[in-house]
Structures are given as C-alpha cells and as structure tokens.
C-alpha cells in the first residue's frame, strides 16, 4: 500500500468517528497542556532567578584569594592545591600561595581572561565623618582602571581615582547617622556627597593598650549609581593610599613580593568560560570564587524541577494513553469484518498494522496539537498575572521587578507534540497487533 493511500485511509477512518476521536483526544490535550504549562513554569522560575542574580552581580568576575598548600602543614592532598611552599613574612603562614604581581600576570595570560587586578582593603578601624555625622563602610584600594573595567553608571562625577579623592557607592550617603541624635528627633536626610570633603578617622592601638588616631581628608570625585551589589556600600581609593593605611595599622612596611595582595579580581570575556577559568586558577594553588558557580547550581536545581514537573504532566498523558488503547480496541471489535475484507482483497498484516498504528498516532498528534496550543495560551496568561504579582512584591521589598514568570523554551512545543504522538503509537500498539494477526476467514465470519 502506497504511503499516500495509507494516509488517506487513516484520515477517512478518523473522520468517520469524530465524536469518539475527539473525546479520546481530550485526554491527550489535557496531558500535553499540563506538560507545557508545568515545564514552562519551572523554566520561567529558572530564568527569573538567573536574571535576578545577574542583575546584582557580575557573572564575568572571579574573586581570587591566597591559597594554601596543606602538604606544608604535614597533611595530605589539599583539594587540588599545588605543592608550592611559600614562606610568608610576618603574619603569613608557611605554605601559603600568595597573590603577587607575577600571579596577576599569570591570571591575565589564562585563555579568556580580559583583566586581572589586585585589590586591598583597609584592615583597621576607619570612621567616615561629614558635618557632624558618622558612618562605617568598607574602603577598597584598587588600581586606577579597576572602576573603568567595572563600567558602572554614574550618579554624579567621574570614575577617575587620584590621590586624595574617592569614589563612593550609591548607599554611602544614606549610611550616615548622627551619633548625638536626640530621641524623638527626625534623623538628618542623606547628604549630597559629590564634591564634598570627607574625614577618615583612623584608629589603632599600641602593645600597651594606648590608642593612636590619625585623620585623613579626601574629596568625593564620583558617586556610582545604585547597582544592588557590593559597590553600593563601598568606598574606592587608590591602591597606594589603602596600602599606606594598612602599613600604619600594622606598624610596618608592606612588601607585595613577600606579603602579597589579600585579593585579586579576574574578569573573563564570556560568562560561559568563567567556571573553567576558575578551575584553572584553583589548579594554580589559589582559592577562586565566582557567582557563576551559583548560577550553575541554580540551573541544575531547576533542570531537575523541570523533569519533575514534566513527569507530573506526563501522568495525565499516561491516563490518556489508556483511553487511546481502549478506543482502538473497541474499533477493532467494530471493524473485524472490515479487517477480514481488507485481508481478503490483498492487504498484508503490515498494512493492517500500519493503518491502526496510524490512527492511534493521529489521535495522539491531534491531542498534542491542541495541548500545545492550550498550554502555550495558558502559559502566557499565567505569565501576565505572575509578572504583575511579582512586580508588586518587588516594589514592597525594594527588589528588582521580575521580567518573566513563565517561559516556554523553543524546544518544548515540538517535544510535547512528538511525545503525545509517541504516546498514541505506544498505546495503540497492542490493538494494532491484534488486528494485524486476525485470520481473514474468522474475521469475515465475525458477527
């Protein structure tokens, strides 16, 4: 039997029993729609979580810290640490793998790396003072081009870092408070810091418990717009100035070849390569931390969630498969004489099998087509309602509004359609085999 004749015969047979085929296909529609909606919901949650994390952190950034060669402490293997023994200076334990200028050059030479910068932090008590108000914030020392690579939006001023100037985050102004605030009085409004002179009050204690103070004045050269990340609560100065602060706190000169840097920031061109570069850095003996590893963990979790949700929807398809099998079995009983007649005029077992499998596949295909349309429409409706609800919640807590609540991957409609068709074929396999193996004489005598 030619393929065209087979297809026409299958369509004619399905058309003769529109009501039965329609009712049977309804189960497939529900199952397919459930698969599309549930998997789209899980994909939307994954996409939303990834976008939220990407909006508050730089996914191309790797934070590198000094590593430790545990063999130097008499232990076994150190989680991939190389056997490098570095004897640090005062306060630096033996076996520590320091971040030096050579380390930065090694990081920059790694495939995919665009920049590698050292970063220091004021390691003592620093009080920020302005017009009788005080604040305690983290002060970072960075190279001049560090902020340029960060490429933030500016609320005011510029990113140029010079000696005696600072660039502050968006939330620094709101962190000021009046230490002599009287109860019941309104706190002062956040000051406009752009161009103002701030006082940095540094404190350290001698061995005999005596406090020594030092005051440094700096000018605010720029204010970074809100980024919802670390930069919002940070103050950036030149690396040399923060190094000088730490030398004053420690009471000794810092030698980077002996003491190293407490941290380095490595940037990678492609976020997809971040984890691989991070593993390379770890292999060199350093500790590497990147937010991309959290993103991968989130993706793994939501992938499992998609499988679970898809399995729940597939249960409805399994129920629909029973309906298809029942419909095809009843069809064989009603068309036994017709099967015997087809075989009598030359139809082979393969032809009969193809006809009934085609009818079962047709029911599955029609149900899958309707299920994909219904599931996609329901997903869009849920997405509109969900985004509106999440936007309201985000406004209440001051978070970034969600851009998507339900997301339908491009592969999902095709997968649901093919899966529904396969369900139809599998469920119609036994009835089709039964029809194909009928003996023509007995089929013609069937009443």
List the helices and strands and how they pair.
Layout: H1 3-16, H2 18-56, E1 61-65, E2 67-68, E3 96-97, H3 101-108, E4 113-121, E5 125-130, E6 133-135, E7 138-142, H4 146-150, E8 154-157, E9 165-168, E10 197-205, E11 211-224, E12 234-238, H5 239-250, H6 256-259, E13 263-268, H7 274-283, E14 287-290, H8 291-334, H9 336-344, H10 349-397, H11 411-427, H12 429-436, H13 440-444
Give a concise summary.
By secondary structure, the chain is of the alpha+beta class. It is built from 13 helices and 14 strands.
How would you describe this structure to a colleague?
By secondary structure, the protein is of the alpha+beta class. It has helices spanning 3-16, 18-56, 101-108, 146-150, 239-250, 256-259, 274-283, 291-334, 336-344, 349-397, 411-427, 429-436, 440-444; strands spanning 61-65, 67-68, 96-97, 113-121, 125-130, 133-135, 138-142, 154-157, 165-168, 197-205, 211-224, 234-238, 263-268, 287-290. The protein has 2 domains: 3-56 and 297-444, no CATH class; 117-269, no CATH class. The protein contains 13 helices and 14 strands. A hairpin with a 5-residue loop joins β10 and β11. The longest helix has 49 residues, at 349-397. The protein starts with a helix and ends with a helix.
């Amino acid at each position: 039997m030619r393929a065209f004749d087979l297809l026409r015969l299958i369509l004619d047979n399905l058309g003769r029993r529109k009501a039965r085929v329609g009712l049977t296909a309804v189960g497939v529609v529900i199952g397919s729609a459930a698969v599309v909606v549930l998997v789209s919901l899980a994909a939307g949650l994954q996409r939303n979580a990834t976008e939220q994390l990407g909006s508050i952190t730089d996914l191309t950034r790797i934070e590198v810290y000094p590593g430790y060669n545990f063999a130097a402490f008499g232990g076994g293997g150190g989680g991939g640490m190389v056997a490098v023994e570095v004897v640090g200076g005062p306060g630096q334990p033996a076996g520590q793998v320091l971040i030096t200028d050579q380390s930065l050059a090694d990081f920059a030479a790694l495939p995919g790396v665009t920049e590698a910068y050292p970063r220091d932090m004021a390691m003592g008590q620093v009080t920020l003072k302005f017009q009788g108000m005080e604040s305690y914030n983290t002060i970072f020392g960075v190279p001049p081009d560090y902020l340029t690579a960060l490429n933030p939006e500016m609320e005011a001023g510029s990113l140029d870092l010079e000696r005696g100037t600072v660039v502050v985050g968006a939330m620094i102004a709101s962190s000021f408070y009046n230490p002599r605030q009287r109860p019941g009085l309104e706190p002062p409004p956040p000051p406009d810091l752009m161009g103002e002179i701030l006082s940095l009050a540094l404190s350290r204690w001698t061995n005999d418990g005596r406090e020594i103070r030092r005051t440094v004045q700096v000018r605010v050269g720029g204010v970074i717009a809100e980024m919802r990340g670390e930069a919002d609560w940070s103050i950036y100065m030149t690396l040399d100035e923060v190094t000088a602060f730490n030398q004053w706190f420690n009471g000794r000169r810092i030698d980077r070849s002996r003491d190293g840097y407490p941290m380095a920031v490595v940037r990678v061109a492609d976020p997809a390569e971040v984890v691989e570069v991070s593993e390379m850095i770890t292999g060199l003996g350093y500790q590497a931390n990147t937010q991309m590893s959290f993103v991968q963990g989130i993706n793994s979790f939501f992938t499992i969630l998609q499988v679970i949700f898809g399995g729940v929807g597939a249960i409805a398809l399994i129920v629909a498969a029973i309906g298809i099998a029942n419909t095809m079995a009843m069809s064989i009983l009603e068309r036994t004489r017709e099967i015997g007649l087809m075989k009598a005029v030359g139809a082979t077992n393969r032809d009969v099998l193809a006809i009934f499998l085609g009818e079962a596949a047709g029911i599955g295909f029609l149900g899958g087509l309707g299920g994909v349309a219904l599931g996609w429409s329901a997903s869009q409706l849920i997405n509109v309602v969900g985004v509106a609800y999440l936007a309201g919640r985000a406004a209440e807590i001051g978070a970034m509004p969600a851009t998507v609540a339900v997301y339908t991957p491009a592969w999902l409609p095709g997968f649901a359609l093919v899966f529904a068709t396969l369900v139809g074929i599998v469920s119609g396999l036994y009835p089709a085999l039964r029809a194909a193996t009928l003996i023509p004489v007995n089929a013609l005598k069937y009443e």
